[in-house]
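Colleagues,

For the teaching module next term, I've prepared a clean inverse folding example: a structure given as tokens, and then the sequence designed for it. I'd like students to try predicting residues themselves before seeing the answer, so please don't circulate the second half yet.
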């Protein structure tokens, strides 16, 4: 009887050992990210403003006290219109004096010419007029003519200076700044008002100096109004500042706007960016990469979402917290990004409900 019991228990013991040896691997939860193939990248965006290409700081060519201001910031002005005026009293007195000097000089010329004619007539008739007297009369005539030319120039100068007491616009434009007020005494040449031409506009941005090597000269940037993102324009680099700003280490880049809409008014805030083609690559978190023996690989979740498989990839670049791998992955494949050093080939995994 004892022998029969031992024989009956033997098959059960063997079966128990086989079940213990073939125990399934534990199913591990896995965090993943979907592979997203990128063949373009955005350079930027950078924030800037719409500014005029041409603008002039205007000031009086003479000094004086401002007595009139006809325009304000934002006003549109036409060529030749008055912007401001100085007290013209001094210039008016100078003009009156210059006109009197001209009248006096004309009388002197007339008198000297008549005297020279009489002396010449007497000299030619052998009267008591010497050559020296005739020469003196000629010299007086020439002196009178020279003084007349001098006072005429002074009259022109006085006339011009009276005109300089009025500041006018040299072109159609818009007033952008005003630097003086009525009653203020300004010296010659001091900037009083700045007038810009609104017909030629530019996008002006400050780009970090370390990125200047990536700024293409011939590419067309996309320019967007921050207030109305649907309004866009194109721009091409026209000028790059030669030196970086000391505090921000940025360089000023001026871009010529190509047929901008009217909504691109001076002073508006814009965003400038450039979309450019790059070799296809897939960005992944740096934690997804497994590196050993000079080779890099990632763990890819099977289509059924139940296992992971190791796949070697080529690393095209690295950034802080990210790596860029080549085309060994397909768009949409899910790549493990946590606990990757503990996986084995065919490891059973469980995806979060949000990834199912």
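(Answer key — instructors only)
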């Amino acid at each position: 009887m004892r022998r029969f019991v031992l024989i009956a228990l033997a098959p059960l013991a063997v079966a128990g050992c086989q079940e213990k040896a073939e125990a399934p691997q534990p199913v591990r939860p896995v965090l993943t990210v979907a592979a997203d193939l990128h063949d373009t990248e955005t350079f930027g965006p950078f924030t800037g403003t719409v500014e005029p290409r041409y603008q002039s700081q205007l000031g009086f060519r003479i000094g004086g006290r401002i007595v009139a201001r006809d325009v304000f910031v934002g006003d549109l002005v036409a060529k030749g219109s008055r912007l401001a005026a100085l007290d013209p009293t001094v210039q008016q007195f100078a003009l009156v004096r210059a006109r009197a000097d001209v009248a006096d000089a004309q009388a002197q010329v007339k008198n000297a010419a008549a005297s020279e004619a009489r002396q010449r007539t007497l000299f030619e008739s052998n009267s008591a007029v010497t050559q020296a007297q005739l020469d003196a009369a000629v010299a007086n005539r020439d002196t009178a003519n020279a003084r007349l030319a001098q006072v005429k120039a002074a009259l022109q100068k006085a006339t011009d200076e009276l005109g300089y007491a009025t500041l006018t616009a040299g072109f159609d434009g818009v007033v952008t700044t005003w630097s003086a007020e009525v009653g203020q005494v300004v010296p010659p040449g001091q900037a009083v008002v700045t007038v810009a031409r609104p017909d030629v506009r530019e996008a002006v941005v400050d780009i970090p100096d370390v990125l200047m090597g990536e700024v293409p000269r011939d590419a067309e940037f996309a320019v967007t109004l921050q207030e109305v993102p649907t309004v866009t324009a194109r721009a091409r680099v026209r000028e790059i500042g030669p030196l970086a700003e000391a505090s921000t280490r940025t360089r000023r880049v001026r871009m010529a706007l190509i047929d901008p809409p009217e909504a691109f008014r001076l002073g508006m805030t814009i965003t400038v960016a450039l979309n450019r083609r790059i070799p296809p690559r897939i960005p992944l978190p740096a934690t997804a990469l497994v590196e050993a023996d000079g080779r890099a690989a990632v763990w890819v979740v099977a289509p059924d979402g139940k296992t992971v498989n190791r796949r070697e990839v080529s690393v095209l670049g690295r950034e802080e917290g990210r790596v860029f791998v080549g085309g060994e992955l397909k768009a949409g494949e899910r790549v493990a990004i946590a606990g990757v050093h503990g996986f084995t080939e065919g490891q059973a995994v469980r995806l979060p409900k949000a990834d199912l």
